[in-house]
Amino acid sequence: MQSPSLPGKVWFVGAGPGDPELLTVKGRDLIAQAGAILFAGSLVSEAATRWAPAGCVIADSKDMTLEQICAWLIEQAQQHAVVVRLQTGDPSLYGTLIEMAQPLDAAGIPIAVVPGVTSAMASAAAAVESLTLPEVTQTVILTRVEGRTPMPEGESLRELAQHRCTLCIYLSITLLHKVESELRAAGWPEDAPMLVVHKASWPGEERILRGTLSTIKAICREAGVVSQSMIIASPTLGARQWPELTKSRLYDAGFTHRFRRASAPADLASSSSGTPT
User: Fold this and answer.
1) What domains, with CATH codes, occur in the chain?
2) Lowest mean pLDDT among 42-46, 88-92, 194-198
3) Which stretches make up the Tetrapyrrole methylase domain (predicted)?
């Protein structure tokens, strides 16, 4: 129990994409120290609370309003030294971190954030895909399709897709028809590879669906995938099966960096590795 004059700290902990074992060590240790934990049961597996100590107050926020969540956190921080708010993925991305931080600041409750693995990275890992490749794309855009929440000017998927880089599209599986139309309007071809991962890393529930711009909607419909899915559109998809790849210069024998001097002339090393100079 905390003295009323010494409030505890609220920790916003990224619960990761679903697999409790993808929690960071720091996040797991905070759960083990917590006097109270509030988790988003609609998106975070209750298994993520498995390290909570005996007597820890554990509540599910799935039916709470923002005001109720903040009130709960403030109340618990007045009683416990460590209060954990478990949030899906990473707290800084598509969450309500700032909306919750402001009332806690106003109440004089100290806060801190522990990052988590976001579903874009978990989905790429599940499918064994790289989001960047030398001379293919070096840029990754994390975005979503406009739905009930409008997109700021200049951030429509059509505009972002014109870069032809990797697009990790959150919160949009029910708007897959919009994703398709926006990519087409940006000039993506019908055979552009597409990846959808449902519940990435969730034990026993993960599903990986592959298709093209012209087929992915039908594939998802047939599979019954209508929620909690990451959509990835990228020119790098499927590279594992490409017969030739431009190699990274980081490990090229002709490339010098602060930990290793070049062991072969750059032109010779590049020629032997298939990497252009």
Assistant:
1) 9-114 (3.40.1010.10), 119-241 (3.30.950.10)
2) 42-46
3) 9-216
For the entire predicted model, the pTM comes to 0.87
For 185-230, how does the pLDDT look when each residue is reduced to its tens digit (9 = 90+)? 999 999 999 999 999 999 999 999 999 999 999 999 999 999 999 9
pLDDT at 164 over 90: yes
Quick: pLDDT tens for 178-187: 999 999 999 9
